[in-house]
Amino acid sequence: MAAPRVLKSLDLQDKVVTADALLTQRNLSIQIVEAGWEYVWTLKDNQPDTRQAIETLFQPAQCVPGFSEGSLDFRTAHTTDQAHGRLEQRTLTLNSELKEYLDWPYCAQVFKLERHVVRIKDSKVMDEVVYGLTSLTADEAGPEQVLDFVRGQWGIENGLHYRRDATLREDWCCVRIGNAPQMLTLINNVVLGLLSRHGLRNVPEARRRFAAHLNEAVQLVLGSSL
């Protein structure tokens, strides 16, 4: 994994590191905190035991008859946005009670993020639940701040990784010989750079347009105005 080497080359003192779930690793968490930084990770099936422990914390409590439900340190933030033809509601719930028990280096808080998305044109509903953890203490970051960090990471993924993996179909690429994978990556970098330079944010729409108007594609590459 290249991430440890990249982190060693950066000066991130007093910064917060975020990444997709693939980089939610114990060794990286140790490296980040011991270098003076903090982390905010999301969890998927690559860390099943940790994810299960956090998920269990947020499940409804089962009270024994005759006993009251114990108080838990749940703090919540909500946001609602409408953009790109979707209405999206997010609820992030934060808890610090697992920090003494969870088998994860320097974990101070865990969270549950619920996303409720309604596509306006056809009222299609999409729900998603994401679990995560952070080295930031309750005094350092509340649910609003943690939600901002997670949304910032998703913005990177949607703006870069999704474009590469899905729109430019890097995940489907079977090229493995010699330097060909690196060359194709460079070509995709050039494509995204050219589109961004000309203010073209919708990559699928731009691909369809230039596929239908090859002369405009040539002008784009050669630096002529569209």
Characterization of the model:
The protein is α+β, with helices and mostly antiparallel strands and 226 residues long. It has a six-stranded mixed β-sheet, sandwiched between helices. The protein has two domains: 114 residues, no CATH class; 53 residues, no CATH class. It is globular. The chain starts with a helix and ends with a helix. It has seven helices and six strands. Helix content is 38%, strand content 22%.
Walk me through the topology.
Blueprint: H1 3-8, E1 16-18, H2 26-34, E2 38-43, H3 48-57, E3 75-83, E4 86-95, E5 109-119, E6 124-134, H4 143-167, H5 180-197, H6 203-212, H7 214-222
Parallel strand pairs: 1-2
Antiparallel strand pairs: 2-6, 3-4, 4-5, 5-6
Entry keywords:
single chain; 226 residues; alpha+beta; 2 domains; 6-stranded mixed β-sheet; 7 helices; 6 strands; 38% helix
Computed over alpha carbons, the radius of gyration is: 22 Å
Low-confidence stretches: none
The major pleated sheet works out as:
6 strands, mixed
String of helices and strands: HEHEHEEEEHHHH
- The strands making up the biggest β-sheet line up spatially as 1-2-6-5-4-3
Fraction of residues in helices?
A: 25-40%
Cα(first) to Cα(last) distance is: 41 Å
Q: Which range does the strand content fall in?
A: 15-25%
Q: Work out the oligomeric state of the chains in this entry.
A: single chain
What coarse outline follows from CA principal-axis ratios?
Answer: globular
Number of strands: 6
The total number of structural domains is 2
Mean of all residue-level pLDDT scores: 83
Helix/strand structural class: alpha+beta
Compute the number of helices. 7
